[in-house]
Design goal:
The protein is an alpha/beta fold. It folds into 2 domains: 3-213, Rossmann fold (3-Layer(aba) Sandwich), CATH 3.40.50; 220-295, no CATH class. 35% of the residues lie in helices and 29% in strands. It is built from 9 helices and 13 strands. It has helices at 43-51, 72-76, 93-103, 109-119, 132-145, 162-179, 190-196, 214-219, 272-295; strands spanning 3-14, 17-28, 32-36, 58-63, 78-81, 150-154, 182-186, 199-204, 207-213, 221-227, 239-245, 249-255, 266-268. A 6-stranded mixed β-sheet has the order 5-6-7-3-8-9, sandwiched between helices. A 4-stranded antiparallel β-sheet has the order 11-12-10-13. Helix 4 (109-119) runs antiparallel to helix 5 and helix 5 (132-145) runs parallel beside helix 6 (162-179).
Length: 296
Amino acid sequence: MTSILQAQGLDRKYGKRWALRECTVDIPAGHVVGLVGPNGAGKSTLLKLAGGQLEPTAGGITVLGGRPGSTPAQLAKVGFVAQDTPVYAGLTVAEHLQLGARLNPRWDDGMARERIARLGLVPAHRAGKLSGGQRAQLALTLGLAKRPELLILDEPAAALDPLARSEFLQGLMEATVEHKLSVLLSSHLVSDLERVCDYLIVLVDSRVQIAGKTDQLLATHHRLTGPRCDPDRLPADQQVVSARHTERQSTYVVRTDAPIHDPAWTITRLSLEDLVLAYMDKPAAERRRVALEVQG
Protein backbone atom coordinates (compact mmCIF):
# COMPACT_ATOMS: atom_id res chain seq x y z
CA MET A 1 0.00 0.00 0.00
CA THR A 2 1.22 3.52 -0.83
CA SER A 3 2.56 5.53 2.09
CA ILE A 4 1.84 9.20 2.63
CA LEU A 5 4.65 9.55 5.16
CA GLN A 6 7.63 7.41 6.03
CA ALA A 7 10.11 8.35 8.76
CA GLN A 8 13.14 6.33 9.83
CA GLY A 9 15.07 7.28 12.96
CA LEU A 10 13.87 10.86 12.55
CA ASP A 11 15.36 13.36 15.03
CA ARG A 12 14.95 17.11 15.42
CA LYS A 13 16.79 19.23 17.95
CA TYR A 14 16.35 22.89 18.95
CA GLY A 15 19.58 23.99 20.59
CA LYS A 16 20.13 21.43 23.36
CA ARG A 17 16.52 20.28 23.50
CA TRP A 18 15.26 17.30 21.54
CA ALA A 19 11.83 17.97 20.04
CA LEU A 20 11.66 14.61 18.26
CA ARG A 21 13.65 11.44 18.89
CA GLU A 22 14.01 8.22 16.91
CA CYS A 23 10.69 8.67 15.12
CA THR A 24 9.97 5.68 12.89
CA VAL A 25 6.52 5.49 11.29
CA ASP A 26 4.99 4.36 8.01
CA ILE A 27 1.57 5.91 7.43
CA PRO A 28 -0.55 4.38 4.65
CA ALA A 29 -2.51 6.54 2.23
CA GLY A 30 -6.26 6.95 2.37
CA HIS A 31 -6.63 7.64 6.08
CA VAL A 32 -7.49 10.53 8.34
CA VAL A 33 -4.59 10.24 10.75
CA GLY A 34 -4.83 11.66 14.25
CA LEU A 35 -1.58 12.79 15.87
CA VAL A 36 -2.11 13.20 19.60
CA GLY A 37 0.03 13.88 22.65
CA PRO A 38 0.60 16.41 25.41
CA ASN A 39 1.88 19.93 24.75
CA GLY A 40 5.56 19.83 23.90
CA ALA A 41 5.48 16.22 22.74
CA GLY A 42 6.79 17.07 19.26
CA LYS A 43 3.55 17.07 17.24
CA SER A 44 4.09 20.43 15.52
CA THR A 45 7.72 19.56 14.86
CA LEU A 46 6.77 16.34 13.07
CA LEU A 47 4.17 18.16 10.99
CA LYS A 48 6.62 20.93 10.04
CA LEU A 49 9.17 18.31 9.02
CA ALA A 50 6.47 16.67 6.88
CA GLY A 51 5.58 20.02 5.34
CA GLY A 52 9.19 20.86 4.49
CA GLN A 53 9.34 23.82 6.88
CA LEU A 54 12.06 22.20 8.99
CA GLU A 55 15.04 19.98 8.19
CA PRO A 56 15.80 16.88 10.29
CA THR A 57 18.72 16.89 12.68
CA ALA A 58 19.18 13.20 11.89
CA GLY A 59 17.29 10.39 10.21
CA GLY A 60 15.11 10.56 7.14
CA ILE A 61 11.57 11.45 6.11
CA THR A 62 9.69 11.12 2.83
CA VAL A 63 6.19 12.40 2.08
CA LEU A 64 4.28 11.00 -0.90
CA GLY A 65 7.51 9.40 -2.07
CA GLY A 66 9.64 12.57 -2.07
CA ARG A 67 11.65 14.78 0.24
CA PRO A 68 9.36 17.35 1.88
CA GLY A 69 9.49 20.79 0.25
CA SER A 70 12.26 19.77 -2.16
CA THR A 71 10.60 20.87 -5.43
CA PRO A 72 7.59 22.94 -6.55
CA ALA A 73 5.88 19.71 -7.59
CA GLN A 74 6.43 18.23 -4.13
CA LEU A 75 5.12 21.41 -2.46
CA ALA A 76 2.00 21.26 -4.63
CA LYS A 77 1.12 17.80 -3.29
CA VAL A 78 0.81 18.96 0.34
CA GLY A 79 -1.61 21.41 1.91
CA PHE A 80 -0.75 22.83 5.33
CA VAL A 81 -3.00 24.64 7.80
CA ALA A 82 -0.92 25.78 10.76
CA GLN A 83 -1.96 26.48 14.34
CA ASP A 84 -4.39 29.38 14.83
CA THR A 85 -5.55 28.94 11.18
CA PRO A 86 -3.43 31.85 9.92
CA VAL A 87 -4.95 34.17 7.33
CA TYR A 88 -4.08 37.75 6.37
CA ALA A 89 -6.21 40.12 8.44
CA GLY A 90 -5.98 42.95 5.91
CA LEU A 91 -7.01 40.89 2.88
CA THR A 92 -10.59 40.19 1.91
CA VAL A 93 -11.95 36.68 1.44
CA ALA A 94 -11.86 37.21 -2.34
CA GLU A 95 -8.23 38.42 -2.19
CA HIS A 96 -7.28 35.24 -0.30
CA LEU A 97 -8.72 33.18 -3.15
CA GLN A 98 -6.87 35.30 -5.73
CA LEU A 99 -3.61 34.81 -3.84
CA GLY A 100 -4.24 31.08 -3.62
CA ALA A 101 -4.79 30.92 -7.37
CA ARG A 102 -1.49 32.70 -8.06
CA LEU A 103 0.56 30.55 -5.70
CA ASN A 104 -0.84 27.08 -6.41
CA PRO A 105 -0.60 25.46 -9.86
CA ARG A 106 -3.41 22.97 -9.13
CA TRP A 107 -5.76 25.57 -7.66
CA ASP A 108 -9.47 24.72 -7.98
CA ASP A 109 -11.10 28.14 -8.14
CA GLY A 110 -14.58 26.76 -8.73
CA MET A 111 -14.44 24.59 -5.64
CA ALA A 112 -13.06 27.45 -3.52
CA ARG A 113 -15.78 29.87 -4.56
CA GLU A 114 -18.53 27.28 -4.18
CA ARG A 115 -17.35 26.41 -0.68
CA ILE A 116 -17.07 30.07 0.36
CA ALA A 117 -20.64 30.67 -0.86
CA ARG A 118 -21.95 27.57 0.90
CA LEU A 119 -20.35 28.69 4.17
CA GLY A 120 -21.90 32.15 3.87
CA LEU A 121 -18.56 33.99 3.77
CA VAL A 122 -18.87 37.38 2.06
CA PRO A 123 -16.06 37.80 -0.52
CA ALA A 124 -15.69 41.54 0.24
CA HIS A 125 -15.20 41.04 4.00
CA ARG A 126 -11.69 41.31 5.39
CA ALA A 127 -10.35 38.26 7.22
CA GLY A 128 -9.61 40.33 10.30
CA LYS A 129 -13.33 41.00 10.72
CA LEU A 130 -14.33 37.31 10.54
CA SER A 131 -15.12 35.17 13.57
CA GLY A 132 -12.64 32.51 14.67
CA GLY A 133 -14.78 29.80 13.11
CA GLN A 134 -15.04 31.70 9.82
CA ARG A 135 -11.27 32.24 9.68
CA ALA A 136 -10.77 28.52 10.30
CA GLN A 137 -13.15 27.66 7.47
CA LEU A 138 -11.38 30.11 5.16
CA ALA A 139 -8.01 28.54 6.00
CA LEU A 140 -9.45 25.06 5.38
CA THR A 141 -10.87 26.24 2.03
CA LEU A 142 -7.43 27.51 0.98
CA GLY A 143 -5.87 24.19 1.92
CA LEU A 144 -8.51 22.16 0.06
CA ALA A 145 -8.56 24.33 -3.08
CA LYS A 146 -4.85 23.68 -3.49
CA ARG A 147 -5.98 20.14 -4.41
CA PRO A 148 -3.32 18.41 -2.34
CA GLU A 149 -2.85 14.68 -2.03
CA LEU A 150 -2.09 15.18 1.67
CA LEU A 151 -3.64 17.83 3.90
CA ILE A 152 -1.75 18.59 7.13
CA LEU A 153 -3.67 20.33 9.92
CA ASP A 154 -1.84 21.44 13.07
CA GLU A 155 -4.47 21.84 15.83
CA PRO A 156 -6.65 23.94 13.52
CA ALA A 157 -9.72 23.94 15.77
CA ALA A 158 -8.13 24.16 19.22
CA ALA A 159 -9.08 27.81 19.80
CA LEU A 160 -12.65 27.52 18.49
CA ASP A 161 -15.80 27.32 20.56
CA PRO A 162 -17.62 23.93 20.55
CA LEU A 163 -20.08 24.87 17.79
CA ALA A 164 -17.43 26.34 15.49
CA ARG A 165 -15.18 23.32 16.13
CA SER A 166 -18.03 20.94 15.31
CA GLU A 167 -18.77 22.79 12.06
CA PHE A 168 -15.08 22.79 11.13
CA LEU A 169 -14.73 19.04 11.69
CA GLN A 170 -17.94 18.35 9.79
CA GLY A 171 -16.58 20.32 6.85
CA LEU A 172 -13.31 18.41 7.05
CA MET A 173 -15.07 15.03 7.03
CA GLU A 174 -17.21 16.01 4.04
CA ALA A 175 -14.18 17.28 2.10
CA THR A 176 -12.16 14.15 2.90
CA VAL A 177 -14.85 11.91 1.43
CA GLU A 178 -15.57 14.16 -1.56
CA HIS A 179 -11.95 14.72 -2.60
CA LYS A 180 -10.47 11.37 -1.42
CA LEU A 181 -7.81 13.11 0.65
CA SER A 182 -5.29 11.73 3.05
CA VAL A 183 -5.24 13.89 6.17
CA LEU A 184 -2.74 14.26 9.00
CA LEU A 185 -4.45 16.05 11.89
CA SER A 186 -2.75 17.09 15.11
CA SER A 187 -4.87 17.70 18.21
CA HIS A 188 -4.80 17.34 21.97
CA LEU A 189 -8.60 17.00 21.96
CA VAL A 190 -9.20 13.26 21.76
CA SER A 191 -12.93 13.79 21.20
CA ASP A 192 -12.11 15.51 17.91
CA LEU A 193 -9.89 12.65 16.79
CA GLU A 194 -12.48 10.07 17.83
CA ARG A 195 -14.98 11.77 15.56
CA VAL A 196 -12.92 12.03 12.38
CA CYS A 197 -9.83 9.79 12.52
CA ASP A 198 -9.40 6.14 11.53
CA TYR A 199 -5.63 5.98 12.18
CA LEU A 200 -3.83 7.08 15.33
CA ILE A 201 -0.31 8.09 16.34
CA VAL A 202 0.46 8.81 20.00
CA LEU A 203 3.52 10.98 20.56
CA VAL A 204 4.87 11.46 24.09
CA ASP A 205 8.22 12.78 25.31
CA SER A 206 9.31 13.39 21.69
CA ARG A 207 8.87 9.71 20.79
CA VAL A 208 6.21 7.72 18.98
CA GLN A 209 4.52 5.43 21.52
CA ILE A 210 2.12 3.67 19.14
CA ALA A 211 0.73 3.96 15.62
CA GLY A 212 -1.99 2.04 13.79
CA LYS A 213 -5.60 1.85 12.63
CA THR A 214 -7.88 2.89 15.47
CA ASP A 215 -10.18 -0.15 15.19
CA GLN A 216 -7.23 -2.54 15.37
CA LEU A 217 -5.66 -0.68 18.30
CA LEU A 218 -8.91 -0.77 20.26
CA ALA A 219 -9.39 -4.48 19.49
CA THR A 220 -5.95 -5.42 20.84
CA HIS A 221 -5.93 -3.34 24.04
CA HIS A 222 -7.76 -4.30 27.22
CA ARG A 223 -8.13 -3.12 30.79
CA LEU A 224 -7.58 -5.86 33.38
CA THR A 225 -8.80 -5.34 36.94
CA GLY A 226 -8.32 -7.88 39.70
CA PRO A 227 -6.41 -8.89 42.84
CA ARG A 228 -3.03 -7.28 43.26
CA CYS A 229 -0.58 -8.89 40.86
CA ASP A 230 3.00 -8.11 39.86
CA PRO A 231 3.46 -7.54 36.11
CA ASP A 232 5.99 -10.37 35.77
CA ARG A 233 3.18 -12.80 36.58
CA LEU A 234 1.21 -11.80 33.50
CA PRO A 235 1.52 -13.98 30.36
CA ALA A 236 4.45 -13.12 28.11
CA ASP A 237 2.14 -12.19 25.22
CA GLN A 238 0.49 -9.42 27.25
CA GLN A 239 2.48 -6.20 26.83
CA VAL A 240 1.85 -3.92 29.79
CA VAL A 241 1.09 -0.38 28.68
CA SER A 242 0.13 1.11 32.03
CA ALA A 243 -0.38 -0.13 35.58
CA ARG A 244 -2.10 1.14 38.70
CA HIS A 245 -2.01 -0.58 42.08
CA THR A 246 -3.76 -0.24 45.42
CA GLU A 247 -3.07 -2.35 48.45
CA ARG A 248 -5.34 -5.11 47.20
CA GLN A 249 -6.06 -4.42 43.54
CA SER A 250 -4.16 -4.06 40.27
CA THR A 251 -5.40 -2.41 37.11
CA TYR A 252 -3.45 -2.94 33.91
CA VAL A 253 -3.87 -1.79 30.34
CA VAL A 254 -2.32 -4.49 28.18
CA ARG A 255 -1.79 -5.03 24.49
CA THR A 256 -2.21 -8.54 23.12
CA ASP A 257 -3.44 -10.28 19.97
CA ALA A 258 -4.50 -13.36 21.95
CA PRO A 259 -7.84 -13.82 23.75
CA ILE A 260 -7.76 -13.34 27.53
CA HIS A 261 -9.60 -16.06 29.45
CA ASP A 262 -8.17 -15.73 32.98
CA PRO A 263 -11.18 -15.65 35.37
CA ALA A 264 -9.13 -13.72 37.95
CA TRP A 265 -9.46 -10.60 35.82
CA THR A 266 -12.40 -8.37 34.98
CA ILE A 267 -11.77 -7.40 31.36
CA THR A 268 -13.17 -4.19 29.88
CA ARG A 269 -12.83 -2.48 26.52
CA LEU A 270 -11.07 0.85 26.16
CA SER A 271 -12.35 4.03 24.59
CA LEU A 272 -9.96 5.93 22.34
CA GLU A 273 -9.39 8.40 25.18
CA ASP A 274 -8.55 5.52 27.56
CA LEU A 275 -6.03 4.21 25.04
CA VAL A 276 -4.37 7.58 24.54
CA LEU A 277 -4.17 8.28 28.29
CA ALA A 278 -2.62 4.87 28.94
CA TYR A 279 0.22 5.59 26.50
CA MET A 280 0.63 9.15 27.76
CA ASP A 281 1.05 7.76 31.27
CA LYS A 282 3.58 5.11 30.22
CA PRO A 283 6.71 7.33 30.05
CA ALA A 284 5.70 9.09 33.29
CA ALA A 285 5.30 5.75 35.04
CA GLU A 286 8.73 4.67 33.78
CA ARG A 287 10.29 7.89 35.10
CA ARG A 288 8.63 7.31 38.49
CA ARG A 289 9.98 3.75 38.57
CA VAL A 290 13.53 4.85 37.75
CA ALA A 291 13.36 7.61 40.38
CA LEU A 292 12.30 5.12 43.05
CA GLU A 293 15.13 2.75 42.07
CA VAL A 294 17.65 5.60 42.32
CA GLN A 295 16.32 6.64 45.70
CA GLY A 296 16.45 3.05 46.87
